[in-house]
Amino acid sequence: MKRSLPVLLAASLAVLPALAVEFRTVATAAVLYDAPSLRGRKLFVIKRDTPVELVVHLEGWAKVRDSEGDMAWLESKHLVMRHSLVVTAAGAQIRRSADAAAAVVFEAEQNVALDYLETAAGGWVKVRHRDGESGYVRADQVWGL
């Protein structure tokens, strides 16, 4: 009995583990390299509180992707489990509740880091600014989810 290609493909994908995207936050300003070594070429310095996607973790090094899609290597000791987001819109209004009609608590400019608190219904995310104010931002205005 022959099976069709789509059935075999679906069956093989069903046994693979789900691939979850992992995000970390840069704890302190750190140098990004083109290879997992202090002898690698220094690319640039990434600032504290920047969210990064963890692509590969290898013996004290992490290959990370930033909000612009660039990838580089970073010593793992500079990463923490805290989850932050970065504003990608020209400006984002953080509202009191997850509603476009809710009062604006504060505004955040592009590239401002915000602490991720929780995902809310309807495409909203609850965030906190490092000054302590919190509220809801549209998920399409931030990166790191």
Features:
single chain, five-stranded antiparallel beta sheet, 2 domains, SH3 type barrels, 14 strands, 1 helix, 145 residues, mainly beta
Question: How would you characterize the overall build of this protein?
Answer:
There is one protein chain. By secondary structure, this protein is mainly beta. The chain has 2 domains: 19-82, Roll (SH3 type barrels), CATH 2.30.30; 85-143, SH3 type barrels (Roll), CATH 2.30.30. The chain is 7% helix and 48% strand. The protein is built from 1 helix and 14 strands, in the order αββββββββββββββ. The chain has one helix at residues 5-14; strands at 22-26, 30-33, 42-46, 51-58, 61-65, 71-75, 79-80, 84-87, 91-95, 104-109, 113-120, 124-128, 134-138, 142-143. The strands form 4 sheets. A 5-stranded antiparallel sheet has the order 6-5-4-1-7, with no helix packed on it. Strands 13-12-11-8-14 form a 5-stranded antiparallel sheet, with no helix packed on it. A hairpin with a 5-residue loop joins strand 5 and strand 6 (71-75). The radius of gyration is 19 Å and the shape is elongated.
Order of strands, widest sheet: 6-5-4-1-7
Helix fraction, binned, reads: under 10%
Number of helices: 1
Structural class: mainly beta
CATH architecture of the largest domain, please? Roll
Integer-rounded radius of gyration: 19 Å
